[in-house]
Design brief:
By secondary structure, this protein is α/β, with parallel strands linked by helices. The chain has a domain of 113 residues. 32% of the residues lie in helices and 21% in strands. The strands form 2 sheets. The protein has an 8-stranded mixed β-sheet with strand order 6-7-8-3-9-10-12-11, sandwiched between helices. Strands 2-1-4-5 form a 4-stranded antiparallel β-sheet. A hairpin with a 2-residue loop joins strand 4 and strand 5. The longest helix has 18 residues. The structure holds adenosine-5'-diphosphate (ADP), iron/sulfur cluster (SF4) and magnesium ion. Magnesium ion (MG) binds next to helix 1. The site of iron/sulfur cluster has 13 residues, from loops.
């Protein structure tokens, strides 16, 4: 395959979880639309960052790509093969090529197994074991590459700090020589001082091994630092996607603008002048997402009637920076300033939007900032 062709191509992906009721008949009474029509691609060697509020479907999207959950509809093409349709042995063989790094390494590492046994297990499962001498050398090389001493092999997960355990989690993903790593909140459970070390490690390994990453985080700062491109997710769909820097310099979608407007900037003069948009209301339930634009219940630019009725597609906006895609009917008019934000009718007295005023951060935004 050409280097320019994407390693991963996701088309119209949907994962709907049935909601069951009833002890005897086990009726399906509805669905959680966890992922509902996502299309994206990731080039070889690229890092794609996926960001959004808790519950918007990031983990489910990552798990669907790795076929750890069943896909309701759509395609996941990995190196030219539609893995959404793979079964049995062909799926097992393909699984070696994509690995997951989890938020909490402790929950994904068997506490009764030594590091050596944890790493050898993956190699054996995929037929990569070459006998004790070769495997031993490979394991020492592996722990060294994630910054741990060779003595770590004889120890157990609980003997390590959080940051070291995440290094073991990364080594375990690497031991089967994957092409794609889905890292789901890889540093969210770590102290801030350790986060940068683990992110740097991921960056170094990518450069050395030519890895491709999908990095999932609710924290905009984490995604910004590691990603070539960023996708912003809201209620099961992508609302904006662009090269990382362009997203932060010139966000287009009202949701992204609201998220970024809540991040303080260090320059006090800029801090005084910058636009602030308060998101009102809670994230609607993915079991009954709003009709039309899913953001319309919270959007300060909402226009009748189209926003309520018609779901906007993710599209290239004329005049926006290269590679910027936005799912908003009015992106051009918002960009030009023709449309101005208005007050969103509050659902409770606390949820008041006053454009230009300094708001208290609501819980959801605070959460996104990882504070
Ligand atoms: N196995 C499952 N069965 C039913 N609902 C699920 C399952 N996994 C996730 N969900 C629901 O799907 C939605 C998206 O969850 P998730 O993908 O974990 O979001 P995120 O990672 O962005 O926080 C949530 O409402 C969650 O409760
Ligand atoms: S389509 Fe309408 S409701 Fe949705 S983000 Fe754009 S202006 Fe807001
Ligand atoms: Mg998650």
């Amino acid at each position: 395959m050409e280097k320019s062709e994407p390693l991963l191509d996701v088309r119209d992906l949907a994962v709907h979880f049935p909601i069951k009721r009833g002890l005897v008949l086990d009726r399906t009474v509805g669905h959680v639309y966890a992922v509902d029509g996502v299309s994206l691609h990731i080039a070889r060697g690229e890092t794609y960052g996926l960001v959004g509020e808790s519950g918007c479907g990031k983990t489910t999207l990552g798990r669907a790509i790795l076929r750890l959950v069943d896909v309701t509809a759509g395609h996941v093409t990995f190196d030219g093969v539609d893995v959404a349709q793979l079964r049995g042995e062909r799926l097992r063989l393909m699984r070696r090529r994509f690995q997951m790094v989890f938020q909490d390494p402790m929950s994904s590492l068997d506490p009764r197994q030594s590091v050596e046994s944890l790493l050898t297990e993956g190699m054996k499962a995929h037929g990569l074991s070459r006998g004790p001498a070769v495997d031993g050398a490979r394991l020492r090389e592996l722990v060294d590459s994630v910054g741990l001493p060779a003595t770590a092999l004889r120890r157990y997960p609980h003997e390590f700090s959080g940051g070291q355990r995440q290094r073991i989690g990364i080594a375990r993903a690497l031991c089967v020589e994957p092409d794609l790593i889905v890292a789901d909140e890889p540093v969210s459970a770590l102290d801030v001082s350790v986060q940068a070390q683990v992110l740097n490690l991921l960056g170094r390994l990518q450069a050395e091994l030519g890895l491709t990453y999908l990095v999932i985080a609710h924290d905009l700062a984490v995604v910004r630092h590691v990603s070539d491109r960023v996708g912003v997710m809201y209620l099961g769909g992508l609302v904006e996607e662009s090269p990382s820097q362009a997203l932060y310099d010139d966000p287009q979608h009202p949701y992204t603008r609201a998220l970024l407007s809540a991040v303080p900037v260090p320059d006090p003069e800029l801090e005084d002048r910058r636009e602030r948009i308060l998101l009102t209301g809670d994230l609607p339930s993915p079991a009954s997402p709003p009709a039309g634009c899913r953001f319309h219940t919270r959007c300060p630019w909402r226009q009748p009637q189209r926003c309520d009725d018609e779901r906007p597609a993710l599209r290239v906006i004329p005049g926006a920076p290269d590679g910027h895609r936005v799912a908003c009917h009015y992106a051009e008019d918002i960009r030009s300033g023709k449309l101005q934000p208005h007050r969103v009718e509050p659902e409770s007295v606390d949820d008041v939007l006053v454009p230009g005023a300094v708001p208290d951060l609501p819980g959801s935004v605070t959460e996104i900032l990882g504070r």
